[in-house]
Design goal:
ten-stranded mixed β-sheet; alpha/beta; globular; 3 domains; membrane; 21 strands; about 525 residues
Length: about 525
């Protein structure tokens, strides 16, 4: 009797709580794909060059924008046979004077049969022989990069030590490089079967654009079309100069330029007039062809935030926006959040569209993790100024092969606003409109879908509200409700009644069990 009573109680409790568990799982399903390609990205050192960390971050973000899951760690951390489950290996050498001492790694990379990619000096001799190429060591004070495919070039004045490909053999080649004090051109990227080699990578300008194509080709995505980038203004907050935001919005709208803002959310003081002003400003952005990313909160000290607090704040911010007719197309966050075991589940599972912002100088982690999540739609955020030295020979090819967002800070003064507008307007570009693609954001309270400019909240079509009342209230019900809404409400009522009934029955069962046990003890 005791066993059966326990099983019945367990079953009833499971039935009572299962709906809540399934809701949490459903929210996580937005960003998970078991069939995604998995890449191991390893490096020797991050301290020898000033742009080593930025190099690693942009490589990872380009891979994420190509729909790949990435695991990142140092070569020293590699364990025997770790490569086995991965679909590809990328080896980045930042410090050419350091010797790779991990024998497990040295052995496994030679016999690894899948995709292999080397970046930097000291290409493994086994890989070089397999490719059939010859290298030439070059030290120079300037390098030029040219891409016939993108009809773009750039000259960089910087000291460079590299091993250029002097003879590419039968390899496929992409783009070319030349040096200030060395005659002739050299191929930049060379491909042979499953192996790819590039002598260096500068994470900006033409080199960034070329790297997108190199990685896409290496992964078997060579036919991707050249697309327009997003133009995004980051760090828009309730304490920003909202009148400045309105002026900038008007200027961009008059110039016919699509753009987006990365705006932080609200999770307290929601009934203040400042919250209303903020909502109105964001609605004016949306009304004038602007799009919105919800930017994750600033984390100043991980020790002061408890587990679950970030998720609660994200839920509150998204619900508040949605219930007041501000419809984020996705979530934006610093790229390093992809490597935090607490930030990932608490902030990065709400939307299938993500903007990977450039990292801050000193990232703050709760708990580091090596593996990123798979993101259905990931935009690589990179500074708009990173392309100021690029010379484009044709307007048609002025674009990017993977989803890219050119980032500018929100202007704080009229001088900064004038400078920002000059950057955008002086060199004509075509920018993508985020609202023309599909996006899905889900909280425990609401299901937001944007489908080719049409907005749906919980299955109901919505429109941009241009003015919010001073006292924010939840979204009003539409005067005419569909039968689907009627049955949805009816189902919720029945679910509540059933749960209450099951809870009462569980109490009766537990009480009956103890009374029965007490009776026979006598």
């Amino acid at each position: 009797m005791k066993r059966w009573s326990s099983l019945i109680v367990f079953f009833l409790l499971y039935v009572c709580f299962f709906p809540f568990v399934s809701d949490a799982v459903q929210a996580a399903e937005l960003t998970q794909d078991p069939d995604v390609k998995k890449i191991l990205l390893v490096y020797d050192d991050l301290n020898q060059t000033t742009d080593a960390q930025e190099r690693m971050t942009t490589i990872q973000n380009i891979l994420l924008s190509l729909g790949v899951q990435v695991t990142v760690h140092s070569i020293d951390e590699y364990r025997a046979n770790e490569l086995d489950p991965y679909d590809g290996l990328i080896e980045v050498v930042n410090a050419s004077d350091l010797t790779i001492r991990n024998e497990h790694y040295r052995k496994d990379r030679v016999t690894y049969p899948k995709l292999k990619f080397h970046m930097g000096r000291r290409l493994p001799i086994e890989w070089q022989n397999e490719m059939g190429i010859k290298l030439r060591y070059i030290v120079d004070e300037g390098v030029g990069i040219d891409s016939p495919y993108f009809q773009a070039s750039e000259q960089l004045i910087r000291e460079i030590k590299t091993e250029a490909v002097s003879d590419a053999g039968n390899c496929q080649v992409f783009s070319s490089i030349n040096f200030e004090n060395h005659f002739g051109d050299y191929p930049y990227a060379v491909f042979k079967d499953k192996i790819t080699y590039v002598p260096f990578y500068i994470p900006s300008g033409v080199n960034f654009i070329i790297m997108q194509r190199v990685l896409a080709t290496w992964l078997g995505e060579a036919d991707l079309p050249v697309g327009k980038p997003l133009l995004v203004f980051r760090d828009v907050t309730p304490v920003s100069d909202l009148q400045m935001l309105r002026e900038m919005t008007d200027k961009l709208y008059q110039a016919g330029i699509s753009f987006a803002v990365s705006a932080t959310g609200l999770w307290n003081n929601l009934d203040q007039k400042a919250a209303t002003n903020y909502l109105n400003a964001l609605n004016e952005v949306a009304e004038k062809d602007g799009s919105i990313f919800l930017q994750t909160p600033y984390i100043n000290d991980v020790k002061t935030s408890s587990k679950g607090e970030l998720k609660s704040n994200m839920e509150t911010a998204l619900n508040f926006f949605i219930e007041h007719h501000v419809y984020p197309a996705g979530v934006s966050f610093p790229s390093y959040w992809q490597h935090d075991a607490q930030f990932q589940p608490e902030a990065l599972l709400f939307s299938d569209t993500m903007l990977l912002l450039p990292d801050i100088k000193e990232p703050i982690f709760h708990e580091k993790t090596n593996t990123t999540q798979n993101i259905p739609t990931a935009y690589v955020g990179i500074s708009h100024d990173a392309f100021s030295g690029v010379e484009w020979r044709t307007f048609d090819k002025k674009g990017f092969l993977t989803k890219t967002a050119l980032i500018l800070p929100m202007p704080k003064t009229h001088e900064e606003l004038k400078e920002t507008l000059n950057k955008v307007l002086d060199k004509p570009s075509l920018f993508d409109d985020l609202m023309y693609s599909d996006h899905h954001t889900m909280t425990m309270n609401h299901d937001l879908k944007i489908i080719n400019q049409q907005i749906y909240v919980d299955g109901q079509r919505q429109w941009i509200e241009t003015k919010i009342q001073n006292d924010p209230v939840a979204m009003k019900e539409e005067p005419y409700q569909s039968m689907e809404n009627f049955f949805a409400i009816q189902n919720k009522i029945l679910t509540v009644i059933i749960l209450i009934t099951l809870g009462i029955l569980s109490l009766f069962l537990v009480a009956g069990y103890f009374l029965y046990k007490k009776k026979y003890r006598r």
